[in-house]
Amino acid sequence: MQARWGEAVGEALAAHCTPVGERGGTLMIACDGSVWAQELDLMSPVVLERLNGLLHGGAVTRLRCMSKPAFGSP
After folding, report:
1. Domains of the chain, start order
2. For position 4, what pLDDT does the model report?
3. d(C-alpha 4, C-alpha 2), whole Å
4. What is the DSSP string of 1-59?
5. What are phi and psi of 67, to 5 degrees?
6. Fewest C-beta in 10 Å: which of 9, 16, 21, 32?
7. Beta strand 17-23 pairing with 62-67
8. What is the DSSP-derived secondary structure letter of residue 52?
9. Could you count the other beta carbons within 10 Å of the beta carbon of residue 23?
């Protein structure tokens, strides 16, 4: 999935948003900031269609976008 991520979202988003895990069809994405997370969230229907097309399996049903500071915070 990591290898196809840039293809699915484009260079700009791939530079600021990175897949960090997947569970039950939900792909968790760490973004450089809340603006990037919101942008990716708004684009999620298009991204899901592209990503699943590239994966030839339709395994991802949802994106969960978070800004990086949210990871590891108490």
Report:
1. 2-70 (3.30.300)
2. 86
3. 6
4. -HHHHHHHH-HHHHHHEEEEEEETTEEEEEESSHHHHHHHHHTHHHHHHHHHHHHTS--
5. -80, 150
6. 21
7. unpaired
8. H
9. 8
- Give the span between the Cα atoms of 50 and 53, in whole angstroms: 5
- Whether 47 contacts 59, CB under 8 Å: no
The strands making up 26-31's β-sheet, listed across from edge to edge, are: 17-23, 26-31, 62-67
CA end-to-end distance (rounded Å), the chain:
29
CA dist 70 and 61 (Å) reads 22
Cβ contact 28:66 at 8 Å: yes
pLDDT at 73: 54
Residue in this structure with the two tokens 């484009």, named with its chain if needed = 10
| 8-67 pLDDT, tens digit each | 999 999 999 999 999 999 999 999 999 999 999 999 999 999 999 998 877 899 999 999
